[in-house]
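This section describes the prediction task in plain terms. A model, or a person checking by hand, is given the sequence of a single protein chain and must write out its three-dimensional structure as a string of tokens. No templates, partner chains or ligands are provided. The sample shown here is typical of the held-out split.
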Amino acid sequence: MRSRPTLALTVLAVALGAATGEASAAEISVNRSCFADPTDREDTVTVRGSGFAPNARYQVILDGRPLKGGAGRTDKDGRMSGRFVAPSVGTVSRVARRHRFDLRVRQGGFEPAVYFTVSRLFASFSPARGNPRKLKVRFSAFGFSLTGQKRPPIYVHYVSPRGKLARTVRLGRGTGACGFRRTGKRRLFAFDPIRGSWRLQFDTRRRYREGTSRSGFLFYTLRVKVR
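The expected answer:
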């Protein structure tokens, strides 16, 4: 399990001395609604808040627990800001692929909240056992909005053991903050596949292009053995 993230706090303005006040309309925000899991890419969550009591202590809370390094003091105008690496979904569950995190800034009796989602880039089908020629499955795709694209179309490209594209199937559009899609049951192969190791590439492009480490688009590849 990965350690919890640490917040690097940056006060927006420096004020000398101490002051007290009431945070009557405190609110916070983050820079995005979707972040990559750090096992795929290190994204930075930036949190900003205003309307707090000026020159007063606060604590950042992540999913109900104090964030390490998340204690600070507001500026003279009752503002705060900070940043930290997006937490791993592995801190929630070893099998989780995405998680909606609850972020709060606590000061006295005030605790405004904001939510953001962290997602792996991942694709799968279930059930994963059976005869690939006859198997009916549900496809699941996670994280296909990590480039910022809203409701991305998600495709699976079937590449034969000979390295040739056999077919492209549209699975639908990704939904939610990070572009998630789960299909209804359908044939794993909507055609009669030849024997060998097939490559299934999931991406957001209608026209197939082999994904590599240098590709400028998101993709995830699965291999399926057909006997």
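For orientation: Residues 1-23 have pLDDT under 50 and may be disordered.
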